[in-house]
Amino acid sequence: MSSLDRTQTPASGDIRNFDFPEVQAAVLSNGLDLRICVLPRLPIVSINLFLRAGEGGLIDERAGTAVLTGDILEGGTLKRSGSLLAEALERIGARLGVSTGWEGTSVSVSVLADRLPETFSLLAEVVLEPEFPVAEVDRARDQQLADIQQRGMDPSALASDEVSRRFYANGLPYARPLVGTQSSIDSVTRDHIRGYAEACYRPAFGGLIVAGDVDPEQIVSLSDKYFGSWSGSPSVMDTFSVEPETRERRIWILDRPGSVQSEIRVGHVGVERTTPDYLPLSIANLLLGGTFTSRLNLNLREKHGFTYGVRSRFGFRSQPGPFFVSTAVGNDVTADAIREILYELDSLVLGGPTGEEVEAACDYAAGVFGLHLETAGQIASRLNQIVIYGLSHDYYHRYRDDIRSVSPEDVAAVAQKHIRPNEAQIIIVGDAGSIVSSVDALALGPLEVI
Length: 450
Fold this sequence. Notes:
Layout (H helix, E strand, L loop, with lengths): L22 E5 L5 E6 L5 E8 L13 H8 L9 H10 L3 E6 L4 E8 L3 H13 L5 H18 L3 H13 L14 H5 L3 H11 L6 E6 L3 H12 L22 E6 L5 E9 L8 H13 L4 H9 L6 E5 L7 E9 L3 H18 L3 H15 L6 H14 L5 H10 L3 H11 L6 E6 L1 H9 L6 E3 L1
Parallel strand pairs: 2-6, 7-11, 7-12
Antiparallel strand pairs: 1-2, 3-5, 3-6, 4-5, 8-10, 8-11, 9-10
């Protein structure tokens, strides 16, 4: 028996075929986009109702209201209290969840296929007949205020909030935390919540995604029965234009005396989800800081031992989201880590990637694609992305072929276009007294201690 040579990297296996399941599409008379995906493997169904009711459409004074409204949805309806609603869901083995982001609110239910009529009835009741009891409003508001207060004590959350503030022009929704601020949430009342739901929980520009062991004709019938008479368009949409706060490279140190390490964020305003450069940018991000073997991780972690891990990411949204590198390092290597981060950004922009890097990143992206589609809920989530961002109906059918066709030249071009080290905002949350002199000595741009 031959011994295993652990000094050699194992060769990648062949990419196996994987076909995204077929999807039937229709539009209800009220404008609700209906997508049905039949998955007969297990008698489980995932239902996702997307409402174009997100934080991106709110002014600063009402920031966090969309998130708060979604959190209260499970608190009761006009027909039953929160506890009775929970009992009704438990009786049919259904699991309800609500999540709110910049683009909208998703209300999802997972249930066995033979309980679909009761599930559609309860889902419609939750969304179309919410009660928003005073006690639930008070509870959710207090909880959201506590979360905001906790963010103010968490260095990682502080750094992320500072990213929003320093990347985006003052007054833009993206310049604030998704959950709002203490002043905006403090002032929210039950009337605000009810008014927001009445104005924005509307079917137009939304979607109903059903994935699982279903009969499409039954889904169409249930959709018409429970949501067909629902009407209207949301009164506010995220139609703002994104502007950066500045294009001058600057350093911001949020002082936390006594901190033994620094939370670092380096980046700038990125691009929107619908950019035609999305796939090559995704590959660029994977090889830069999106995997364990990325350039940033091999440099800061493996070569220099500055950190346990470093990541880069594009926050793709309906409007240009943030692009940034994030890590946490000790005070004594804060300046060194920033220098190496900018070195890797410059190297990718000026020198481009190698063919081996792009091939490995493309194979990785294509290889893990099927692993993210193992459940009905995961498939429904992907279909939700098609509705939210208006992607082509065959987007995921073509995804693996499209991602593997990305070339080194494609990656080099989009890196030069969308990664701008000279415009980067460098944000550090840490002990200013321990790091300010070494960071200032880098001479990267104006420095301000907050």
